Amino acid sequence: MTKTFLRFIAVIALAIQSSGCAHAKPIRVGLFKDAGAAGKGVPRVTEILGKTEDIKVTHLTGKEIASGALTNFDVVMFTGGSGSKEAASLGEKGREEVRQFVRGGGGYIGICAGAYLACTGFDWGVGVLNAKTVSSKWARGVGQVEIEMMPKGAALTTLPAGKRKMLYANGPIIQPDDKNDIPAYETLAFFRTEFAKNGSPKGVMIDSPAIVRGTYGKGRVLSSSPHPEQTSGMEDLIPSAVRWVSGK
């Protein structure tokens, strides 16, 4: 093999790399799939992220997370079901693993139950979002609610600012908690209508945060009370959220 040919190969390789044809490593998402994760959340997120080229999703159990599996991932994600049951599946060790992961720079996404799990206001939560619920009565109802995406939310998610419908299924209605060592969250979208069934307090859901973002240590957190992954036209929020919490 001549030196001229070797130089030719080197030039071609450099040109490919410079043109962006060399693929970057995908964002690695660990999606919790264990007791507590219920409904359509896991299959829908798996389907949505499976259509992206820059994101790779892997299902993880609570035991795997507790055993240190998050060291192989960039983002951890918890979908709907029961936040307390997801916490029980993780166990104390798993919850601490999640905290350490985010504190060290990992990303966290929580939807509905996963949004409850993120809050500091529960002794069983992972406590990566400086938030607590306004009431212990969580069974507010299930159906379409109106949210309003703020400009900062639109910039993050690539979805237009303004009002739209989104599926709600007893997600958390949050307010700021008082943890001095965790920055306050920023609201990306607000609820503009509400459910208030089963004796839950009326009026507290309207104009409260629907989707928020925050930081915990070096990591980023995004929490959504309603379900973008199960709302037609809102699915793109999922890969956008993954890219933001991963820093990309």
Largest sheet: 9 strands, mixed
Strand content: 25-35%
Spatial strand sequence of the major β-sheet: 2-1-3-4-11-10-9-6-7
Summed up, the helix count is 7
Sequence stretches where pLDDT stays below 50 over 5 or more residues: 8-22
Helix content: 25-40%
The number of strands is 11
Shape: globular
Write up what this structure looks like.
With 248 residues, this protein is of the alpha/beta class. Helices cover 30% and strands 25% of the residues. It is built from 7 helices and 11 strands. The strands form 2 sheets. The chain has a 9-stranded mixed beta sheet with strand order 2-1-3-4-11-10-9-6-7, sandwiched between helices. Strands 5-8 form a two-stranded antiparallel ribbon. The N and C termini lie far apart (41 Å). About 6% of the residues have low confidence.
Features:
nine-stranded mixed β-sheet, alpha/beta, 7 helices, 25% strand, 248 residues
Q: What topology emerges from the helices and strands here?
A:
Layout: H1 3-18, E1 27-32, H2 41-50, E2 55-60, H3 62-66, E3 75-78, H4 83-103, E4 107-111, H5 113-118, E5 131-133, E6 142-149, H6 151-157, E7 162-169, E8 174-176, E9 186-191, E10 209-216, E11 219-224, H7 237-245
